[in-house]
Design goal:
Layout: H1 4-19, H2 21-37, E1 39-42, E2 45-48, H3 49-63, H4 67-75, H5 78-90, E3 97-101, H6 107-118, E4 126-131, H7 134-146, E5 154-158, E6 171-177, H8 186-196, E7 197-208, H9 214-226, H10 228-236, H11 239-251, H12 255-264, E8 268-275, E9 280-286
Parallel strand pairs: 3-4, 3-6, 4-5, 6-7
Antiparallel strand pairs: 1-2, 7-9, 8-9
């Protein structure tokens, strides 16, 4: 006996043969409705998927002005080394057109501009910094002006990583650093990254990951849960935001699982590299 859900799917499949785009719209609406009613995580909390975007937006809206200061404090400056390594792994060449997703305050984009300047290829390169949070973008724009960046080499776009407004095959490189774990549907972010990349394009993601050594993991957990939220409260007046930060790291897939997700999005030659015993991992893939 058919369940109501099964009957509905058969109906939509049958209708799509005769109704074309109208049936596709119904299918899309059904999928969107199901997505919104699915549960997901916000740190260790379980919430509706439709609620996560606004909650994450509020977190970064509140921490935007202290974001860079807190990164320095939490990592004792090591995040700068991680980001330098990340840009070296990207290794931009002439005519690189980069989309830096969740790029907010500009850390990755500025390293890109410095790299292509040092290689004397800056005039043929461009970076688009994209973030869903306007406050983060404003911080980045202010920093960029202070650094006297050539505005023809860098642009700023507010966009949702799960539903980008850029055309297919618009970029030949895509980076996302410490941003993808905050997205509600990581698979959709990966699919969109694949869509906007040109054939041969490079996907590079840096994200907090899982420490494999048991002793190191215990020490890391103690620091994360006992120190970072307190630091967030003292330096930025934001305990809950940094409690979410450490919880979100623990909910993100481990290195191998995330590698598989990238492959399922269509990327090939997918690899990863652990930094600082796996506190951070850089995942790489190509659209071939």
């Amino acid at each position: 006996m058919l369940t109501q859900r099964a009957f509905g799917r058969i109906f939509y499949r049958s209708a799509s043969r005769g109704l074309g785009s109208s049936a596709k719209l119904l299918n899309s609406t059904e999928t969107h409705f199901e997505d919104d009613n699915q549960e997901t995580h916000f740190g260790f909390q379980t919430i509706k998927a439709s609620e996560k975007g606004q909650k994450v937006y509020s977190v970064f809206e509140n921490v935007a002005t202290n974001y860079d200061k807190m990164n320095d404090a939490m990592s004792m400056g090591v995040h700068r080394i991680w980001k330098d390594i990340f840009m070296c792994r990207l290794g931009p060449t002439a005519n690189t057109n980069l989309l830096d997703m969740a790029g907010g305050t500009g850390d990755i984009a500025f390293r890109f501009l410095n790299y292509v300047k040092n290689e004397n290829i800056e005039k043929s390169c461009h970076v688009t910094v994209s973030d869903i949070n306007e406050n983060m973008l404003e911080v980045g724009k202010t920093r960029s002006k202070a650094l006297n960046h050539d505005p023809t080499l860098i642009s700023w776009e507010r966009a949702d990583g799960e539903n980008l407004h850029f055309k297919d095959e618009s970029f030949n490189a895509y980076t996302i650093a410490f941003g993808i774990r905050n997205c509600t549907h990581v698979d959709k972010v990966l699919q969109e990254a694949y869509r906007v990349l040109q054939p041969g394009g490079r996907f590079l993601c840096m994200e907090f990951s899982q420490v494999e050594n048991e002793v190191a993991r215990w020490l890391y957990d103690q620091y994360s849960f006992q120190v970072i939220p307190v630091m967030g409260h003292l330096l930025a007046g934001q305990w809950q935001a940094y409690q979410y930060l450490v919880e979100s790291i623990r909910k993100f897939p481990d290195q191998e699982t995330f590698k598989t997700m990238i492959e399922e999005a269509g990327f090939r030659q997918v690899t990863y590299e652990n930094l600082s015993l796996g506190v951070v991992a850089i995942h790489s893939g190509f659209k071939l």
